[in-house]
Amino acid sequence: LFFFFSSRRRHTRCSGVSWARRCVQETALKYTKTHEWIRYDEATGEAFIGITDYAQQELGDIVHIEMPELGKKFHQGEALSLIESVKTTADVYSPVSGPVSKQNPFVKDLSLIHI
Fold it and tell me: What is residue 5's three-state secondary structure?
């Protein structure tokens, strides 16, 4: 599992060469009812996990993200991370079972999330 927290996106279109790769990646996402997403990379065998744009908008300004420990194993449906915002605190649930192999280094800089 690679815990990934994407920055807020503006409306994007899947046209032109520059958007082609991003659009392929977005169509490969699978979503949960609790607003997490997962993208499985068949080449590396890694799963990338994050929260939806809708969840980010509902949370508002994020003030703290508790990242999962590297190597820690999670079961499907188990709380993977905790996100604190000015509005509320929310758990991020693991959509699959497995150990955390990497963390997104940009999550530590909250200014990059509020784009």
Answer: coil
